[in-house]
Fold these 4 entries.
Entry 1:
Amino acid sequence: MDGKNENLEHGNFDCDEYSFGGIKKRPHDIRIGNLNIAVIWFFDAEVEQDRRILIPSPPRIVRELNAANSIWRTSDGVRKVKVNMVYSNYNDSNQIYTETLDEKGLEKLVRIGKGYYKAADVYVFYLPGISIMGSDAIGRALYRVIDNELTYIVIMSNGARDRVESTERKGSDYVLAHELGHIMYYTNHYGWKQDPKPNDDTLKSDGTPDIGHHDDDTEEERRNLMSPSITSGVIPTITDEQVIRALQSRFFIPGNPGPRN
Ligand SMILES: [Zn+2]
């Protein structure tokens, strides 16, 4: 076992759940994790496709999927997350905007998503609007129990789209990869829900340490995919420890208990 895995076992986590008969269980060594996502885009979501032509993979979404698949891998290429778009569709039955998205809106979204496809690991919604729910966030990962099912959700705004506005580069193709990172951390099989080098010297708006993000103390750390913000036009970095942690998501554990537990 190399130093990196050693760290995972003896980090400052609550170890009760994964010690067994006094012997610490080793984390599974998952090499390839398949993350199955269902993607639904709504009227006025900028996916770079004429809405009269409903091809199942709009250019923006394809780019962002490619970005996620290119970054969630170890430097030696041996371990990786494969983000599979198992379902995609356009929906215009509801006008739901990121700025005014509320709990009712989330419920609607999840029901629409599940109406199309029942068993995705994550439901990704592309919505119109520049920022999300009164914050300055352009993407958001969250989970909710809706209709008695725990569902993992990613919201992507038009503000996240990689684009140039009056010569200024904005958004990033890597926002989706970042949000999926949060989901993989949230669902860590061992309960290690934080980034391996957490941004714990910063408090979130609710007063708790920002452990879901990567530390952002140095220039290099700020380039990391899981740092609190992504710089437009810059390809982010990722560490092997982060990929290994992501691969510990229960979505990838053999005999996957699924999202509903
Ligand atoms: Zn984040």
Note: The first strand starts at residue 19 and ends at 20.
Entry 2:
Amino acid sequence: MASNAIEIHEQYDLKLLTTLKAGGRASKLCFARSRDSLAEVSKFAYQTGLKHTVLGWGSNVLPSDNGVPGLVTVNLATQIQISRDGTVTADCGAGLQELFLKTAQAGLGGLSFAVGIPGTVGGALVSNAGAYRSNVSRYLVEIEAIRDGVREWLTPEFMQFSYRDSILRQVNPPSITLLAVKLKLEHGDAKQIYDDAREFQRQRIGKQPPSASAGSFFKNVNDAELAASLTSLPLPLKDAGVVPAGYLIEQCGLKGKRFGGAMVGARHANFVLNVAGATASEIRRLAEYVNAQVHKEFGVWLEEEALYLGDWSHWQTTGELTE
Ligand SMILES: Cc1cc2nc3c(=O)[nH]c(=O)nc-3n(C[C@H](O)[C@H](O)[C@H](O)COP(=O)(O)OP(=O)(O)OC[C@H]3O[C@@H](n4cnc5c(N)ncnc54)[C@H](O)[C@@H]3O)c2cc1C
């Protein structure tokens, strides 16, 4: 790696780089300002056996209080190119909302759902981010990546996308850095594109708390039997067999429940908030307590949508609110 070109910071505080404003330090951290430099750092990390974590805006992660070993690279590569035929090429460090704005300005529809989702294209791909029945993988044609130290273009199928999931969320994920995407969007009615975006934004403002969070902490539950058994669940959700995690948490009476500086959202129960300088351990403890209560009440375990980063090797799940 041209280490003379990229500055490596030691013991960098990850609270500064995550929307939950919690967690420990990265042993080593650098900022990649272009697609090529992200590629170079990723190859270097692979060749030297350094554990490598790429971070976008840190809006879907909780780094351990014990820190993140290896090298963390913050992706600041943000180029977006739009062709007349609706083909869009974007660096994975580009903001998802910026991508919506630029494509909407070019008269291209499809990404209105992204308004209000913080984060980069890369982070969005990892969890197949979405809202309002759409998601980021829908318009994907190809992904440029570093896989096992080699730069190549991958098909969307490689990523095994499903609801808020991809191959990169597996327990032992392949060694992949996402560099860029190619999307194919359709020309649409400009007024309709902005109207949709405005409406989505309006709905979001009504639900989303302003405090530090990682968005929805848990995934919704696809369980037709459970949905049918819940008398107060709205009919469209019953029909779809989907139970929002926030519904289950609210039914357990946990809105506003606190542990240390962490709190279950009072407005939206699926948000775990950092309201008073919470440690990552306090946030995780509260989230696991919530999960245990939901399991006790409804017999299902919730799956985290937020990702735990770094060294949680000494962590013990108790489901109790003790230190
Ligand atoms: C207020 C709020 C609202 C939200 N609303 C939504 C919503 O409506 N829908 C939704 O789906 N999500 C939502 N989120 C969650 C989050 O914004 C998305 O998951 C977002 O796409 C994450 O992007 P990021 O750049 O912040 O990723 P990060 O949090 O930085 O990273 C997430 C994961 O992706 C990995 N990663 C990031 N970039 C790369 C890369 N280039 N190559 C390889 N791995 C990479 C990281 O290592 C990490 O494992 C919300 C979050 C907040 C705080």
Note: The mean pLDDT is 95.
Entry 3:
Amino acid sequence: MSKRKNKTKITFLGNNSEAVTGSMILIETIDKNILLECGMIQTNSQIEDYKSNAKSFPFKPKNIDYVFINHVHIDHFGRVPKLIHDGFNGKIICTPITKALMKPMGLDSANIVRRDAEYLSRKRGKEIYPYYTENDIYRMLELTESYVCDDIHQLDDNISFKFLHNSHIIGACQLELFIKNESGHIDKILYTSDLGRINLKNHYVDNLEKCKNASVVISECTYGSIDKNIKTDRNKDLEKIKTTVEQVCNVREGRILIPVFSLSRSQQILTDLYLLYGDNPNFKIPVILDSPLIWGITKIYKEVLDKDNLDLFEKACNWKNVKFIKDYRESQLCVSDPTPKIILSSSGFLTKGRSINYLSEYIKHTKDAVIICGYAPPNSIAGKIKSGQKNISIDGKSYKNKCGITILNSYSSHIQHKELLDYLKDIKTNKVYLVHGEEKGKLQFKEILEEEYTKLNKTTRVISTVKGTVCHL
Ligand SMILES: [Zn+2]
């Protein structure tokens, strides 16, 4: 950390300043050090990711006072346990739902870190120690304090904050951070983290609440590139699901795999299937959710949802067709079972987890099908299936892709290009820093947003960040 000045300094340290994972931004105020999130880098290479995430932080973790976590995706909070492992002893600040979800998500992550370390130890012939363990997860929970949205919370003499609702995933929020400098002037920083859809809401998420003004805005830019502005129509996707189920399960007596993320997407798709078929006594196809993490998260949903949301979720989970599988042996038997069924299993990108076991079985049969929901990185297995590749390599073995493929576009949990443009151009601010996007898309978005500001006679500057970009307030 640099020698403390009488002004606030923001440094874009994380991988999210030049890509879409690994969120981490350092704010040095007149007397405190704050991290805006501390997430894992996630690419498609297990070894590269392990190396990147095991690296030391570019500051002393014991000197950090507060870490804000806006939502519980691993690329936003997954390195907090390492921060603790390396000496952090400050406060972790998030919403109550995010805190509740940190336990299953954190323990699952510690398990993956341990398995990756074991794999690397075998590969290199020497012991590689995991860069955090379950103990760090429990310590993380002890250090975490939860705060509700919409109230201003005073952290100390100079720092206060407010969380704004966000439709990205359950419990997600934006952060408005108020920092008083030496002259008594208060700067307001808006950090959007990942933003959710405005015009097409997923189940169990809040409406996105808009910030009106800020000294500085730090915004995500996942769909900065205009060519990612895909038309999304939920009703069309629901029709596609119905057609696929009819053709595959009823006509061909085949099986359907829907690779999903354990958090949010699996609960969303389960609920949509329930709303499509729950009232139909003749619908006999089993809907199977196979993942211990889906089970853990489902339990938390039942604790944190209320009123109509809880009622709907309980109905979907208790639907007679639904079965949850936790046990690995039972999962293996289910993979080889030839009878018609719909499987929801993680991971969504088919990069790891039990969804790969189902794929390696279903891919061999023309009667079976895979439904891909939303975005998939082009070099992930889900991305390759989506682009129509005929030969798919799974765990080093090559398969001819014979199964049917259905692609759904409306299930993204990220704000779309036009929605983001409309949101940001209405905010009264001096500077907008773009993070969480590929460089090409960010530069394209910067140009378009600056044009919008010019049309509105605003002098707002837009900065496409790189690692090391600094902002002095
Ligand atoms: Zn996210």
Note: The domain at 9-227+413-472 is CATH 3.60.15.10 (Metallo-beta-lactamase; Chain A).
Entry 4:
Amino acid sequence: MTIDIDWAHDSVIADTLALVAEAGVAATWFVTHATPILADIRATPRQELGLHPNFNPLLDGAPGSARDKLLQLRDIVPEAVSVRSHSLVRSSRLSVLFRELGMTHESNYFLPPSAGDDIPPWIDFTGIVQVPIRWEDDVHLLDPTIGEPVAHLGKITPLTVDFHPIHLFLNTTSIAEYEHSRPIAQDPVVLRERRRAPGSGGSRDHFLNLLEAAQQGAASACMRQLRPNQEN
Ligand SMILES: [Zn+2]
């Protein structure tokens, strides 16, 4: 489970954190900015903070350097060993830089389910472990043929999924809904009124269905392990 916080309001991030904590699932949170909620994520068992640098302004000609952007973020998350760029901006030069700054894991490839079931992480020439994303909530809004994440559970291994707190909060079902929410992105009360009802087929539904199925799978695996002992 990976989560890109993408400058969301702390109440929006807290909503995702509550869902993750309740399910007891381990997650890596890719951080875009300094904010009080990071302390709550750190205090929650099995949560990891990573870096989510935004290189897009540099690509558009803004002043600055990739190194400075990374150093600023690393000041916010000094414990980070994982990195994913906003918009998945990647290059071999960036991977070298990530490695230099202490990152051990990069997650900047999106490989759709159609790319194959068994695609394990690999170590590239920089020595960094590349962990491809296999399902992503905003990609599903653009390309529904990637299916529901729960449909890939137990088939795609490992199934690295990427969710965004704003889409979980809104239970987003279309890109248009998300675009309309942008002006009120920092107003969680109004945002909450826009949330799609449960069962609408939005991002929150995908997330909850996935976690429920994963928990059931873990429970039945646990029962299989217990049974021989019980029979003895
Ligand atoms: Zn992002």
Note: The chain has ten helices and nine strands.
